[in-house]
């Protein structure tokens, strides 16, 4: 048995790396299956399980599920199916569906480049060229009327394809397409001529967003938030997040901007949650629970704006506690009525390890 944390069981020099511990997992499975009296796994346990399950009465929900599965196998209906792209290095982190044609999908891998399909994922074509950065972290389509042919993708992954803290996958800024994502060009204002040197915030980009009301492009990097008001020809920093921190950005359909800055990796200039209507003046809306944890340090926070009520925004925060990855979920109400709270914590029953 190979254990990715300590190496094979007979290795003289174990491999030391943070990953899945196969031996401990096998011990855990044994504890779940063993007979507590004999301390052994009963013989024929699988056959006994099958025999027992055949005697369970089938209810309406099970019948519905069974019929759905039959429709899936016959090709009429299915819940999930692998759509690719296949045989591409790195995990797929960026995904976007063309708002004008749902069969057009763009998928970007952390180390596999950008891929495009026009038939709902049945076939894919790589649209990044060999000299263009293969590290895709986020992609967006211009939401304004008559501007949907314009797309942007950003590059640079803080944890890299290996998932380790030191496995940085440096990017090369932001790329732009003006033909529906078929071809791409680098935005010179975001490139770093010194490859390997972290001299630009655009070396590691977490998310990008476009203000639907005026077309301003926002880029959340590892040292703050940047904005372009001329289609990516030039950028200016509108918020200093401090060096080597996770910054994220999201914008409502009416132009309300939300931003988060982590406090875990370094002493950030302004960790917390913020909102703005003009991209220059920011209001700190950090919930008290996060303020109490700021000294200990919390990690990346991603946001989700409720499409049915954009006054409601969800914030999912990564937090380390005694080397255990915890998740903290908050709901923000920008326009509470009556006795409604601005912040509601929804952390209970979330997974304790969000990776």
Major sheet details: 4 strands, antiparallel
Provide the β-strand percentage band: 25-35%
Total number of helical segments? 4
SS content category: mainly beta
What would you report as the Rg, rounded to the nearest angstrom?
24 Å
H-E order: EEHHHEEEEEEEEEEEEEEEEHEEEE
Strand order of the largest sheet: 3-4-5-6
- Record field, number of beta strands: 22
Shape estimate = globular
The end-to-end span amounts to: 24 Å
Stretches where pLDDT falls below 50 for ≥5 residues?
Answer: 1-19
Q: Please, what is the average pLDDT? A: 82
Q: Helical percent range? A: 10-25%
Notes on the structure:
The radius of gyration is 24 Å and the shape is globular. The two termini are 24 Å apart. The protein has helices spanning 22-33, 45-53, 60-74, 288-293; strands at 2-3, 7-8, 92-97, 105-109, 113-117, 125-126, 136-141, 151-155, 174-177, 185-186, 205-210, 217-221, 224-228, 236-240, 247-251, 257-261, 272-276, 283-284, 298-305, 312-321, 324-333, 343-345. A four-stranded antiparallel β-sheet has the order 3-4-5-6, with no helix packed on it. A four-stranded antiparallel β-sheet has the order 7-8-9-10, with no helix packed on it. A four-stranded antiparallel β-sheet has the order 11-12-13-14, with no helix packed on it. The protein is mainly β and 355 residues long. Residues 1-19 have low confidence and may be disordered. The protein is built from four helices and 22 strands.
